[in-house]
Design a protein that fits this description.
The protein is an all-alpha fold. Helices cover 84% and strands 0% of the residues. The protein starts with 9 loop residues before the first helix and ends in an 11-residue tail after the last helix. The relative contact order is 0.14.
Length: 446
């Protein structure tokens, strides 16, 4: 059901819209957690390291899919909020066509450059073959990844956060079952984990596209609606390209950090693989809430209601705080127990490194959560330059500090410390840019 986010009490509207988004990303992350969990529990510590190593590469592809998602979502939300329904429909069609072309290019580049990329991040020989196998199958699933991401962006732009949630619940639970079946019953190893994910993503993607078609056709529009518009593609690109660059640089930065971690051996790699999945569950959840706030912002700017955005910021901060504080406490005090989800008999090195990572980053989740709320408003209001400055400051600082501190301390602890420092700097910048937003300078005049 399409929902107008420009009417109703802002706090109620935002909470009802964003909570299903939070649930959706939790189940989305179950895909990745299930892969690592099954690999570590039923295959071995090296398999866990291989899946974790491959996962950092997959984030590069997901970054581009995310850009297509947010570009389509923000522009569609703006058109929908302004009641320009024909242009909203054309935005959807244009994104679907452009995303298909981008996906094919990425698939070709992925197959040709995968070995070089794995060498570049210093993948150890004992996990190289499994990492390559996992990624080969993952690249085959890219059309499903792309179109599913675009579909969820369309649902969110139209104010519907429940449909993606229902789809992800079914798909994620199926993925867990398929992972275990392929690995334990069919003895397929790491490739079984990858095939299970591909099949479940494929089914979810096709169901999403079918529902999107019905939902888009329900939007009232007079006359013939064009299937493609260069002008709208330009509008989409203004949001999508910075988002792609932001996520791509984050992925590249993560791969650079992964390359530093890889020099410490497979034990540290395995510990990091489990801990980073738990960390990403939280961070990605708040990123998705930020995306929801982007759609809320875009609809209300399209309707010329900036006062509702200020109320949305306050409600967004309260929402993320209520969600992240319990998770911070869970990770800080029970991180060692959670690590046992991923490895049946972890080495002391793997368990200790993963647990320490969680203890260091967990207290700072509230900081990154507030940053992502501010980022969501910056992106939804089209302030992409400011959004990218805040993001890149965090990323660059994190990568540089990971290298410097790990060398100075001769320990992976230096890498873990780079996370909270980068988050604090990025959050300060994001909040500053939000306060200085053009539409936020003179509240009384709006």
């Amino acid at each position: 059901m399409n929902q107008d986010l420009t009417v109703g009490k802002p706090s109620s509207v935002l909470w009802k819209f964003c909570l299903p988004l939070f649930g959706s990303i939790v189940f989305q992350q179950l895909y990745n957690i299930a892969d690592s969990l099954v690999a570590g529990k039923f295959i071995g510590e090296q398999a866990l390291a291989a899946v974790g190593n491959g996962y950092e590469v997959t984030l590069l592809f997901i970054a581009v899919a995310f850009g297509c998602n947010i570009g389509c979502s923000v522009v569609t939300a703006q058109k929908f909020g302004a009641h320009q329904y024909a242009e909203a429909r054309t935005t959807v069609y244009t994104t679907l066509i452009a995303s298909g072309v981008i996906c094919l290019v990425l698939m070709l580049g992925g197959f040709l450059g995968l070995d070089g990329l794995l060498r570049l991040i210093h993948t150890p020989e004992d996990v190289f073959a499994d990492s390559r196998c996992y990624l080969d199958i993952y690249i085959l699933s890219l059309p499903f990844v792309f179109y599913y991401n675009v579909a969820t962006g369309i649902f969110s732009a139209l104010g519907d956060s429940k449909t993606p949630f229902y789809l992800l619940v079914a798909s994620s639970l199926s993925n867990i079952f398929a992972d275990i079946l392929f690995v334990t019953a069919f003895h397929m190893g790491v490739d079984g984990v990858a095939w299970a994910t591909l099949i479940c993503q494929g089914v979810s993607c096709l169901a999403s596209l079918w529902l999107v078609r019905k939902r888009v056709h329900s939007i009232p529009a007079e006359g013939k609606v064009p299937l493609f518009s260069w002008k709208l593609l330009g509008s989409i690109s203004v949001v999508a390209i910075p988002s792609m660059l932001q996520q791509s640089f984050i992925s590249i930065g993560n791969m650079m950090i992964q390359s530093i971690i890889n020099t410490f051996g497979s034990g540290i790699m395995a510990g990091y693989s489990g801990a980073i999945k738990l960390n990403n569950l939280v961070v990605t959840a708040f990123t998705t809430l930020g995306n929801g706030i982007s759609n809320y912002t875009a609809q209300n700017l399209g309707a010329d209601k900036p006062d509702r955005i200020r109320e949305g910021f306050k409600s967004g901060v309260l929402l993320v705080a209520s969600l992240c504080i319990p998770l911070s406490l869970l990770y800080f005090f029970l991180g060692n127990k959670l690590m046992y989800l991923f490895v049946e008999n972890p080495t002391g090195q793997a368990l200790a490194s993963g647990t320490l990572f969680l203890k260091i980053v967990a207290p700072f989740y509230i900081v990154v959560a507030v940053k992502l709320v501010s980022d969501g408003i910056l992106r939804g209001s089209g302030q992409m330059k400011r959004f990218m400055i805040a993001t890149f400051a965090d990323l660059i600082l994190r990568v540089v500090l990971a290298k410097v501190l790990s060398t100075v301390m001769a320990s992976s602890v230096g890498i873990w410390l780079s996370w909270p420092i980068g988050w604090v700097v990025g959050s300060i910048l994001s909040l500053f840019f939000y306060i200085k937003s053009p539409w936020n300078k003179h509240p009384a005049e709006n």
